[in-house]
UniProtKB/TrEMBL annotation:
Belongs to the short-chain dehydrogenases/reductases (SDR) family. This is SDR family oxidoreductase. It comes from the Bacteria. SUPFAM superfamilies: NAD(P)-binding Rossmann-fold domains (SSF51735). InterPro entries: NAD(P)-bd_dom_sf, Sc_DH/Rdtase_CS, SDR, SDR_fam. Pfam families: adh_short_C2.
Amino acid sequence: MSLPRVLVTGGGRGVGAAIVKALALAGFDVAFTVRTATSEAEALIAAVKAEKPDAVLAAHSLDLADREAVGAFAGRIAEEPAYFGFVHNAGMSYDTLAAMVEQAKAEELMQVNYWSFVRIAGALLRPMTRAREGRIVAIGSIAAEVANPGNGIYSGSKAALAAYCRTLAIESGRRGVTVNTVAPGFVDTAMLERYAAYRANVEKQIPLGRFARPEDVAAVVGFLLSPGAAYVTGATLPVDGGLTAALAIQR
């Protein structure tokens, strides 16, 4: 009996690697994309197989900033046997004040964070609807809901992603496909190393008192692909330690 197939973008390191590991250990056949994290992907596969020798997972090289490459990849997977799940984790950041935005950099970010999801999800959706089952999860951000100086383009891309997922959810629900967004806050990965000097102060403002671990996000993704989440769609689930629930002004 074949395992349910799942595709994860940006699975070589950080949150993506934690998602790949969690899904592979849960019994999914996991394909994941990497851009530069080739050695990390090889180490990840070896680590998962050491823990679960019969795990099925494979890495594929793909630059999501390359529109033609994404189109070709989407064309290939559309012809493959249906995937049960798709997790769009890959993303890039671009921090600058709104008045200083360079359009070329902003468009590259939108291609990676938003348009690659639209293209790949579109390719996978038709086979999912024919199979009458499927789970699509986008890794968004709490930045889509709350403003932070210098974060406008990144926040905009994540807001667009969440809005698109809600529409996709209502369009595909009757055909057995659920679509949800997971919105992390501060996660302990290399992407946030530049905040190291401010970490202690930031953690004081998080009700749970710490940054998320990549495994915290992966666990929520695993739930959304599990039988227990069959009736969850069109939702955005924050994984932020209560940060967005707290009043910004501290006494």
